[in-house]
Design a protein that fits this description.
Elements (H helix, E strand, L loop, with lengths): L16 E3 L4 E4 L2 H13 L21 H14 L6 E10 L2 E11 L1 H4 L1 E8 L8 H16 L4 E7 L3 H9 L3 E10 L2 E11 H4 L8 E3 L1 H4 L10
Helix pairs in contact: 1-2
Length: about 220
């Protein structure tokens, strides 16, 4: 599988990569974000049921949609501390960027818990890629960063996301509520422990650039 090759960044989070036989998650460099702009411009969330809670730049009209989306990623990349971090990855399929997969943690050193967020171009949905990219980022979280558990949530009327969580071994973890486009809606919450992930661990997922990134995230190996 061909993936873009670029000179290494001085900032380790931008060098991290996760590869499966189908797709790659590559650190969201500006070059990759620019290549993803046409997908955002075309529209990611185009009809109900709306998948994202508020606030969400992807609900805005173009060109404010692209500008707000870029600003949000740039701002998020600059907020990495030991108490909070969000890693942004561009999903690359057959050499082309088709979406994003994020990995998020608060006080990771204390709790070892991560959550995920993702979106895909409508042109490549219903091909099992949502499940593949979630498996890829979970491999990074558990195998690469030593996470203890992963959380996820999805609106109750988002069957695709809920099916992915159930298929990957997440257990129901209650319900919550959030607004989307200003209207209230019910969220299903999911939880996946390391114990329940291990039996599903895939041997064909590879990581790159993780050891150099761990200190940036406040993950310090025991002596």
């Amino acid at each position: 599988m061909d993936t873009p090759v670029a000179a290494p960044s001085a900032y380790p989070p931008l060098n991290m990569q996760v590869h499966t036989p189908t797709l790659s998650l590559l650190g969201a460099t500006d070059a990759l974000l620019e290549r993803l702009v046409p997908v955002v411009r075309k529209g990611v969330a185009t009809e109900p049921p709306w998948p994202f809670d508020d606030p969400m730049s992807l609900y805005k009209d173009s060109p404010d949609r692209e500008w707000s989306w870029l600003r949000a990623v740039w701002s998020g990349r600059g907020r990495v501390t030991e108490s909070f971090w969000r890693l942004y990855f561009v999903v690359v399929l057959d050499g082309e960027p088709v979406g994003m997969q994020d990995l998020i943690a608060t006080d990771f050193a204390a709790f070892g818990t991560v959550s995920t967020f993702s979106w895909l171009s409508p042109d490549v949905r219903r091909r099992g890629l949502g499940r593949e990219m979630r498996q890829a980022v979970l491999h990074l979280a558990f195998d690469g960063l030593g996470a203890r558990e992963a959380a996820s949530d999805a609106f109750a009327d988002n069957p695709a996301s809920n099916r992915v969580s159930a298929a990957l071994g997440y257990r129901p973890n209650g319900v919550d509520h959030a607004t989307r486009r200003g209207e209230p809606a019910e969220l299903n919450r999911w939880r996946l422990t390391r114990e329940h992930w291990l039996p599903t661990r895939r041997p064909d997922i590879t990581l790159a650039g993780v050891s150099e990134c761990r200190p940036v995230l406040g993950i310090h190996d025991a002596d």
